[in-house]
Amino acid sequence: METLKPLSDFFEAIKKDERISIVHIGMYAALLQFRVDKGFINPILVYRSEIIAIAKIYSPKTYHKCMRQLNEYGYIKYEPTRNKYKRSKIYFLSRSNK
Fold it and tell me: Are strands 44-46 and 76-79 parallel, antiparallel or unpaired?
């Protein structure tokens, strides 16, 4: 069950982080599912549309805000692209990287 460790680590990390909402949790879980589907690679390259379909978040504004916050809070490293034809890069950070 090594594939569940990043999710378990995330839940452990957010226990006392009051900034994290259900939207952040859903987004992080969707990112992990995408990562598993791609062979557990790090980083993953994503289009917004791929992640919002998994996370059931349909507002681009909510997606970008949540991704920016997960990045700012140190749960991921998010390198967005300004070109809609290129994928954004998302790194999963281990607890030792934070």
Answer: unpaired
The end-to-end CA distance of the chain, in Å, is 23
Report residue 1 as tokens.
């069950």
pLDDT (0 to 100) of residue 84: 87
Tokens of 43: 């980083």
6 and 44 Cβ atoms separated by less than 8 Å: no
Is the predicted pLDDT of residue 92 greater than 50, yes or no? yes
Please list, in sequence order, all residues whose beta carbon lies within 8 angstroms of the beta carbon of residue 46, skipping any fewer than 6 positions away.
31, 34, 87, 88, 90
**Alpha carbon of 77 to those of 1, 91: distances in Å?**
24, 5
What's the pLDDT score for residue 97? Answer: 44
91 forms beta bridges with: 77
